[in-house]
Amino acid sequence: MAGRFRVGEWTVVPELNSLERDGRTVHLEPKFMQVLVTLSEQPGEVVSKEQIFKRVWLDTFVSDEVLTRSISELRKAFEDNPHEPKYIQTIPKGGYRLLAPVVLEVKDREVSVSLPWWKQKRWQLGAAITILVLAALSSVYFFRNRREAASRPRITSLAVLPLTNLSGDASQDYFADGMTDELTTRLANIGALRVISRTSAMRYKGAQKTIKEIARELNVDAVLEGSVLRSGDMVRISAQLIQASTDKHLWAESYERELRDILALQSDVARNVAREIRIQVTPQEHKKLTAAKAVNPQALDSYLKGLYYWNKFTEEGMRKAVEYFQDATQKQPDYASAYGGLANAYHELAFYVAPKEVMPKAKEAALRALELDYTDADAHAALGWVKWHYDWDWSGAEKEYARAIESNPGSSMAHGQYALYLDAMGRFQEGLQEHNIALKLDPLSLIGRTNVGDAYSGAGQYKEAEKKYREVIELDASFAEAHAGLGWACVQQGRFPEGIMHLQRAAQLDTGPEFTAMLAYAYAVSGNRNEARKILAELVDSSQKRYVSSVFVALAYWGMGNRDQACNWLDRAAQARDSYLSGISLEPAFGQFRSSSCFQNLIQRMGLPHSEN
């Protein structure tokens, strides 16, 4: 193949950015290959740093550290000892010299040059030809690569598919999933690049679909896929970038680091992706993209396990997430992301346990995370959630969501939570805009789509709400929240049999108190008071054994027409700082109850800016 040449025992293939020897292939980053080709043009001669910078990084300012790392990676690929080099020699204050002989493959002939060049007093004719031909080929290589890059369709959206766990040990899936999460988060910091959230991307784990099919369903220009292999304290990640429209592999690299340097590895991958797609990166984004603080391997392991359980969104999952995030912070007290994860896990637990037990801990963890890293978008969002649901600090919550989105415009969680906040404030149109942004970032999110239905339902637009709920059920007929939303919309329109059917289905899929309380209300307003009483009695009994949101009991009592008991249980909810009170002013089921003095007193007590829909 034109352009191939040998350096010592290695065959260099610039077009594939690879080295080959004895049937083994080592992939290089494109810039590393360019450095090698530059040195190969002058074998045996000292090539100054300035010469290399002009050739490889002509239009880019980079530090000496970047070149030093490039040389280090080349030595690692060649298995070269920097103290007794056989391939690349460092010349103090001079530059670098390629020691190994270069053999150029030209059709069926080889043009070779023997070392040491610096001992020869004259250039030999064959060697001169070698240099000229090699320089010409490498120039063609560089110019062709630039021309191809310039002709590529613009890439402004990307999906990071779940990295494949190559360990053969299913118990290591959490590690591969965590690496996928972290890489997604890092790339999402680029404002000009729309990166699909992990929730949607994880639906393709193990899926037998083509890249084109996945890209079309997620509406992205390119896909990043790869694998991860962990062995002891070492980890290797292989990644490749694929253009969706042509199914063409644009770039492929393998990285190997110690676990403590995993953040540096993630930075390398993200930076190289950004460079390859030529996306605009601001100085602030570049700083976040390349942040690579060392991390305690044991703390990292606990953090990734915490992420794994947090993403399950169950009570048991949240409890385990808290344990692992806590363990991560104990093993590394300055681990900002672990504190952010802890804050999110605590505030989600407030739906299952008394908020006063966990919300102050959530706030403490979020503040600690921001003390360590004020740009942590997840921590800002977590603090916004606590201020909204627990502190009833409505303006403070909005400021935190604004900071979260400013820190990471690509965070679907920040946009989604802010949308829910705007819904609760009665700012329907603004909320809908944020919901749409969140869905562009996380198009297959079942809860995200259901939240849009809830927004329409809260605004009294039940027909639109029904459409959204039915779309979710088409995607996943076992998603309880969508059945509950659809059933609720039907009940509010007086279609009781259909509504009760869907609420029953929701209660079967999720046996928690929320959907059974909604079912009790539906039974009561439809005239089946016996079933309503039965469920209400079960709710009251459960509330004496474990934490049950008093809002649910109040809802059931209101359906039965018992205003006094509804008021009593709403008062209990206020005393408990119940998380479900956050959107109480817009709950359509309370209807005429909103005009009652006890309801208005509750709104005033909470300081809600909007008391009516």
Question: How many strand segments?
Answer: 15
What is the typical, i.e. mean, pLDDT? 86
Write out the strand line-up for the largest beta sheet, numbering strands in chain order. 4-3-2-1-8-9
**Could you name the CATH topology of the domain at 5-150?**
Arc Repressor Mutant, subunit A
Explain what the structure shows.
There is one protein chain. With 613 residues, this protein is α+β, with helices and mostly antiparallel strands. Among the domains are: 5-150, Arc Repressor Mutant, subunit A (Orthogonal Bundle), CATH 1.10.10; 157-294, Rossmann fold; 512-613, no CATH class. The protein is built from 26 helices and 15 strands. The chain has a six-stranded antiparallel sheet with strand order 4-3-2-1-8-9, covered by helices on one side. Strands 10, 11, 12, 13, 14 and 15 form a six-stranded mixed sheet that branches. Strand 8 (102-106) and strand 9 (109-113) form a beta hairpin. The longest helix has 27 residues, at 125-151. The protein is elongated, with a radius of gyration of 30 Å.
